[in-house]
Structures are given as structure tokens and as C-alpha cells.
Write a structure and sequence with these properties.
Elements: E1 2-8, E2 11-16, E3 28-37, H1 42-45, E4 54-55, E5 61-67, E6 79-82, E7 85-86, H2 92-95, E8 106-107, E9 117-120, H3 123-126, E10 127-129, H4 139-145, H5 148-158, E11 166-170, H6 174-185, E12 190-194, H7 198-207, E13 211-213, H8 217-227, E14 233-238, H9 243-251, E15 253-261, H10 272-278, E16 281-284, H11 289-301, E17 313-316, H12 320-328, E18 335-338
Parallel strand pairs: 11-12, 11-14, 12-13, 14-15, 15-16, 17-18
Antiparallel strand pairs: 1-2, 1-4, 3-5, 3-9, 3-18, 5-6, 6-10, 7-8
The structure holds zinc ion.
Residues 87-88, 90-91, 93-94, 102-104 line the site of zinc ion.
Length: 339
């Protein structure tokens, strides 16, 4: 089969890889219906993470082709969605709703789902079958549920977005935009998207943003305060992962408010004294997408939400390198790869 390999920063190639096989009796093999490139794939692409011949990709939807002897909840022919973290969904951490930190977790990035086929560990715990074979136009939205939608959703839940709340969103990538969508679905009264790109502002508004703030850093914080009677937002979603974005999120939050942070943290150091004085709740990390999948699949199936709108470039798998370039150069928000 063909699959994406990153040999070094900036060096992405589509190569012939071994077809995956069942290794553990709890595994399933899927044929991908589509794959995509994640904003977090840009960290190694830009040299911020080590990379040396690694298979790439952790988002996936597709059809089960084979199951191990112990798999009972999905069968060949089922169309399935899974999280970017495979989990047993039975351990104490999973049952508490933190499947992304399952005691048996397998990061799907180690499998590499920018490929034609993928082995899914803990298939019973990880995969959720859709009610039937989806219409073609639902596939991008179902693929978004695998990571960016589930991550934006967790960020909104962690930030306690809900009725009567003002939510600010730091980051206008796919996760930030879908954090806006999640905040809207959760009933937030006012949603402030922080973005300086016209096309992303437009999508943010379509997803439910009521206000746009173009300023960043201290100026962005001042603007959020200005819009909230000097108090700051009740709920702030952080969807970037840098020192600047994290501090922008914390400083935009009112005392007693909540920050949901899901941008993969890179060299972020929190100043203790400022944090002490801020009196904000911090909750974040790799999103337990599996917890939300049944609900998100249903919302997509019923066409209540359209998270697939974040894909603004579609390329065949063979042109993955161009997809990485387009996202790196910000010519695309999120790239869908057809397989
Ligand atoms: Zn578990």
C-alpha cells in the first residue's frame, strides 16, 4: 500500500509500505475512506519535533476489512470513525472520560494513517461504527470528528462553554474554528474568535462566532477585556500551543473562569506568581475524543453540524507533500487526502 513518510523536516514522501496485518486479537484493519494532515503534523515538518523516517497521520475514517479474534463491536464492512489515540475504553481512566490517557493507549501517529490501510489497536474500545454507509459529502465531517472536531469540543467543554457564557478562542486553525462550533452547540451566548485572516474569520462566523478580534498578545487581551466590561471571558479556548498563545488565553480569562488548552504545548512555561493571582481553572491536554464520538457522529449524521467545512484543500494521497507545503505556508487551513 502507499503511505506518507516524513524523512526529515520539510521532507515528506509517499512510499510503498507493508500492508498492515492483525497483530493482537483486539486489532482491526481498516481501508481508509479519506485521511488528512493535522496542524500538529507541522511541528515535526518545521523541525520543532524530532523526525526520522516516521509514518505520518493519526486521523482516519474508513471501512473495516478484517478483525482480530477478540473483536466484537465492529465487523468487516462497517464504516467506522476512531480517535487519534487508540484506547481500551474499559480501564479506570477511560471510564472517567479520559480515553486519550488510557493505561493501554496507543497513539495513532505511531501507526500512520496517511495511508491506504491502517491497523487499529483496541478496536472495540477505539472504533465507533456509523449508523450506515455515509453519503460521500459526510465523509469530511466524519473525518474531522476523528481529531479536530473532537479536540475543539473537548476544549470547549474544558473551558466550560455554555449558556450565558462569553467564550474567547485563541487560534484560528481547524481546532480553534471547531472550538467555535462546539461553543455554539454547547449554548454559549457570545463567542469571540481571535483571527486576522479574512477567510478564517468568515468560517468562524459561519460556525457561530459573534465577534472577531484581530489583535494578538497584550493588545488582544486588552480587546477581550474591553468587550467584557473589563473582566475577561468566562471561557477561553487555547488552540495553538505557544508561550504567547497560552499567556494570551490565561490573561483573557476572568478570575474564576476556565481555560481549555488543546494546542500541543511547545516550550510553554507558566509564571507561577501570575498564575496564582489569576484564579483561573486550567484544563487541557490531548483531547479524549473517544468520549464524544457517538454524540458527534450523530450530530453530523443528522446534518446539525458541518465541521468538514474546515477542509479547504483536497488532494490525492500521492500529493501529500504539496498538502504539507500548503498548510505550512498557510495557503490551506486543513488538507483532506483522498485515498
Ligand atoms: Zn483505558
Amino acid at each position: 500500500m502507499r503511505g506518507v513518510i516524513m524523512h526529515a523536516p520539510g521532507d515528506v514522501r509517499v512510499e510503498e509500505r507493508e500492508n498492515p496485518v492483525i497483530v493482537e486479537p483486539t486489532d482491526a484493519i481498516i481501508k481508509l475512506a479519506a485521511s488528512c494532515i493535522c496542524g500538529s503534523d507541522l511541528w515535526p515538518y518545521r523541525g520543532a519535533d524530532d523526525v526520522d523516517g516516521a509514518p505520518m497521520g493519526h486521523e482516519y475514517v474508513g471501512v473495516v476489512t478484517e478483525i482480530g479474534a477478540d473483536v466484537t463491536t465492529v465487523k468487516p464492512g462497517d464504516f467506522v470513525v476512531g480517535s487519534f489515540m487508540a484506547s481500551d475504553n474499559t480501564c479506570e481512566i477511560c471510564r472517567a472520560g479520559y480515553q486519550s490517557r488510557c493505561v493501554h493507549v496507543v497513539p495513532m501517529g505511531s501507526v500512520g494513517t496517511q495511508a491506504e490501510y491502517a491497523r487499529i489497536p483496541h478496536a472495540d474500545g477505539t472504533l465507533v461504527a456509523t449508523p450506515g454507509r455515509p453519503d460521500e459529502d459526510l465523509i469530511p465531517s466524519l473525518l474531522a470528528a476523528s481529531d479536530v472536531l473532537g479536540t475543539g469540543w473537548f476544549a470547549a467543554v474544558a473551558a466550560e462553554a455554555g449558556p450565558g457564557k462569553t467564550v474567547a478562542v485563541v487560534g484560528d486553525g481547524a481546532v480553534g474554528l471547531l472550538g467555535v462550533l462546539a461553543a455554539k452547540q454547547l449554548g454559549a451566548e457570545r463567542i469571540i474568535a481571535m483571527s486576522r485572516h479574512a477567510d478564517r474569520q468568515e468560517l468562524a462566523r459561519r460556525f457561530g462566532a459573534t465577534d472577531i478580534v484581530e489583535e494578538r498578545g497584550d493588545e488582544g487581551v486588552a480587546k477581550i477585556k474591553e468587550l467584557t466590561d473589563g473582566l475577561g471571558a468566562h471561557s477561553v479556548i487555547e488552540a495553538v500551543g505557544t508561550q504567547e498563545s497560552m499567556m494570551q488565553a490565561i490573561r483573557s480569562t476572568r478570575h474564576g473562569g476556565h481555560v481549555g488548552f488543546v494546542g500541543v504545548s511547545h516550550d510553554v512555561e507558566l509564571p507561577g506568581q501570575e498564575l496564582f493571582g489569576s484564579m483561573v481553572h486550567l484544563h487541557g491536554g490531548p483531547a479524549p475524543v473517544r468520549q464524544y464520538l457517538p454524540e458527534l457522529i450523530q450530530l453530523i449524521w443528522d446534518r446539525t453540524i458541518d465541521p468538514g467545512a474546515v477542509f479547504d484543500l483536497t488532494l490525492p494521497l500521492d500529493q501529500a507533500a504539496e498538502g504539507y507545503r500548503a498548510m505550512d505556508e498557510r495557503r490551506a487551513t486543513k488538507v483532506l487526502l483522498t485515498v
